[in-house]
Structures are given as C-alpha cells and as structure tokens.
C-alpha cells in the first residue's frame, strides 16, 4: 500500500489502527459494517468522509468454514457505458446525501448525513465514483431514478472472489465499489479473518484532522 500512497486511518474506527482486523462479531450480524455477516451492500469505503481512502487492501488470514463470503467489486469504468446519458448527467449533480456509518456517528441521537454531493465527479469518460447503496439517498425522485440505474449497471459488471489465506486484493476506492455476500459465522475462533489497510494518494488535504506526523484522522465534527 505504501507504493500506492500514504497509509491512513480514522480515530472513529478500530481505534485508529493502521492495520485493522476484520472478523464477524456476535450481535453485529445485521450491521452494514465489516463486523456484520449479512450481505454487505456495495459501497465506496467511508463514502461519507471528507478524506475517505483512495485505496483499501484486504489481506486474508483465514477464509472461515462458511464458503459464502464472496468479496465483490464493481468499477464505474465498466458500468459507465451501461448508463443512459441522462442518468450519467444527473449523478453529477450535488443531490445525494450519504448517512454516516454507525461507527462514525451516534445513531442513537440522530442519523448524520453528508451535505448533498454528486455521486460521479471528474472526467466525463473516466469519473470518480462515491456512493453507498445502503446509505446514499437522493433528494428528489429524478436523482433516485438515476441512482437505481447506477446500481443496476454496477451489478451487471461485478467481479467476485473468495479470498483464501495469503490472498490480498487492492481496491481503487475512487473508481470501484465493493461489498460482500452474506455468510454464517460460527464464532468458534475459525471464522473469516482479514487484515485491512487504507491509503490516500495525498496525505496533505487531511492535515487539519491529523496531529503533526500522525496518520490518524480525528473525528469529523
Ligand atoms: Fe468496505
């Protein structure tokens, strides 16, 4: 990951560790988070965060006894040709808000959302994608229709992999969403176990959220 950029982490999540353990946790089964085990919907990692990672890596230490956990990715480069011009243009409008993950915000008080933002940005023929199909919602019907079309297009180009010990995948979080199919944990010490790491291409923009020489972003207030 250090070849691609600078490792970074977030104080809100996994205590800010740069290398994080990903395992199913009892009681978290239904959560749309790495600790859950139901279908994890397609998402840009930390799509709600102003300094989300540009890359994430998943290194497999243990596959687990249930072979149902398939890691899936979908690239906007592959999905873009499947979008209508109208929807592609709509997705560039700042009409989408994304709910903060529960590990970054106290949902008990009130759900926290980003300000309205576009889902697609950058070059018309090679855009960046930022979306969470569980947590992103449009502010109007037209935006919702385009979001549904995007979901359908991404689902048509999905790639899946069952990670085995020693496998590592690196995802470009700027152009691809990822998710995981559901599985049944056994909680006997033999479940699926990954190590995750984030990197950004440029560490400087997040400087105000980090202490000097630290890679850990403080909570967004
Ligand atoms: Fe993720």
Descriptive report:
The protein has 221 residues and is α+β, with helices and mostly antiparallel strands. The protein has a single domain (6-217), classed as Clavaminate synthase-like (Double-stranded beta-helix, 4-Layer Sandwich), CATH 3.60.130.10. The chain has helices at 76-79, 85-90, 141-156; strands spanning 6-10, 19-22, 40-43, 55-62, 71-75, 96-98, 120-121, 128-129, 136-138, 159-161, 168-172, 176-180, 193-200, 216-217. The strands form four sheets. Strands 1, 2, 4, 11, 13 and 14 form a six-stranded mixed β-sheet that branches. Strand 7 (120-121) and strand 8 (128-129) form a beta hairpin. It binds fe (ii) ion. Fe (ii) ion (FE2) binds at residues 43, 45, 178.
Order of helices and strands: EEEEEHHEEEEHEEEEE
Return residue spans where pLDDT drops below 50 for at least 5 consecutive residues.
none
Largest sheet: 6 strands, mixed
Q: Report the mean per-residue pLDDT as an integer.
A: 94
Count of distinct strands: 14
Write down the CATH topology: Double-stranded beta-helix
CATH architecture: 4-Layer Sandwich
Describe the protein's topology:
Layout: E1 6-10, E2 19-22, E3 40-43, E4 55-62, E5 71-75, H1 76-79, H2 85-90, E6 96-98, E7 120-121, E8 128-129, E9 136-138, H3 141-156, E10 159-161, E11 168-172, E12 176-180, E13 193-200, E14 216-217
The chain binds fe (ii) ion.
Brief sketch in words of this structure:
The chain is α+β, with helices and mostly antiparallel strands and 221 residues long. It contains three helices and 14 strands.
Considering the chains and any ligands shown, give keywords for the structure:
globular, 221 residues, binds fe (ii) ion, alpha+beta
